[in-house]
Amino acid sequence: MAWTSTLLSSLSPWLQWPSRTTTRHVLIGVLIGFSFSVTSTSFAVYYQQRKRERQIANFSARPIELRSDEIVKGVAGLIGNTPLVRINSLSDALGVEILGKAEFLNIGGSVKDRVALQMIDDAEKQGLIHPYTGSRIFEGTVGSTGISIATIARARGYDTTIIMPDDVAEEKVKALEALGATVERVRPASIVDKKQYVNLARQRASKFGQPDRITASDPTSKAAHPHIFHTPSNSVLVASAPVHVGFDTDDWSETASLDFSQPRGYFADQFENRSNFDAHYLGTGPEIWRQTSGRVDAFVAGAGTGGTVAGVGQYLKSKNEDILVAIADPEGSGLYNKVKHGVMFDRKEAEGTKRRHQVDTVVEGIGINRMTNNIELALPILDDAFRITDAEAVAMSRYLVKHDGLFLGSSSACNLVACVKLIKQRGWTEDKDVVTILCDSGTRHYSKFWNDEYLRKAKIPIDLQIVEDLLSSPPRL
Known about the structure:
The chain crosses the membrane at residues 26-47. InterPro entries: Cys_Synth/Cystath_Beta-Synth, TrpB-like_PALP, TrpB-like_PALP_sf. It is a single-pass membrane protein. This is cysteine synthase. By secondary structure, the protein is α/β, with parallel strands linked by helices. The protein has a domain at 80-106 and 276-472: 3-Layer(aba) Sandwich (Rossmann fold). 43% of the residues lie in helices and 14% in strands. A six-stranded mixed beta sheet has the order 1-2-12-9-10-11, sandwiched between helices. β9, α10 (307-319) and β10 (324-330) form a beta-alpha-beta unit. α9 packs across α10. The longest helix is centred in the first third of the chain and has 39 residues, at 20-58. The chain is globular, with a radius of gyration of 31 Å.
């Protein structure tokens, strides 16, 4: 037991109660630490509360409330206010939230429903066209805008003529015909060709309602005077059916413009029409801002006419100038070069010198080799661009079906590939939100983009490993 006594004797100084001074110092340290912790926590809570108050102050009520318990009036009520869906597979793999605006849920099946509605609404407000007067809307399109216009036109009492390239997916043609549209298919051509689909749509509108020419040699005959209306756009055109008046009357144009019941031909021209931009600046952009509570770090979208990326991008930048805006550009398009290098195309690719497809890609709906009014509106706010190959787009579409059950079209797949590339380029691994547009579903692409035999003949691989490799590649810091 001697060793026990020795041990206790050696430890006795350490087993004594601390002195009063030491105890006081310890208590003061604990109180100071606790006070600092409470103070810092209070400041953090106060800061977060003030931040939320500022965000709430910047938000306005939704233009269209959630439709779970209400009745909307006609097809226009089924356009917009689409959900923002988290792409689980990509978000989980990257640690960054990738959110898709589910525009394929619009009544006409695509993001173009917003544009078509805005163009028709604006034309009616300006008195250019009037419902149920026998008027006809003309448009040149690769499909989706035409379907959207035909949908709304049918509900509003207008006829529709759609001019489109003859190599677009057959499903789009069938949808247009089912909606009662007159469809004219032409060979793909450059914009300088008078027979290019957009130029032909304008020509058809300008000749709307013109009868056979009447000679003035017969004093009993009356002349047919076509009337072309001036519009806010240099390109948008409205033509009235000819008005028959006597040769001694010079007020035919005034009569035509004042006769609201007279049929008119309206060339909508989505490429140049400011209504395209407005649809997204006034609608899609504010919806994204509200749905994310202002937490947006980047917005990515493809550009065909340029209206979506311009309108949404401009709105988001007006709320937070630090938000990155980037485009997804398919093969054969010149927008990537325009954003990255300041030139739209090489001289040998210049539109007007080539006589081939405007954009050589299996992707439909995005990509262009010329400047439009809407793309001009996008250029000042574009921070980056990403070239997307056909193989990458095809791989992404199949990857999303396998892992998320999302059956999307070609432009949606391009957008999501670009989202992944942007995240990798910036080295983002967490606490970021990237928003993109899911333009339409795969149901409009069975004959081309979702046709394995077509892809094999075009020598486009179907390889999901492309996406796997992209996701697993190291960030480029």
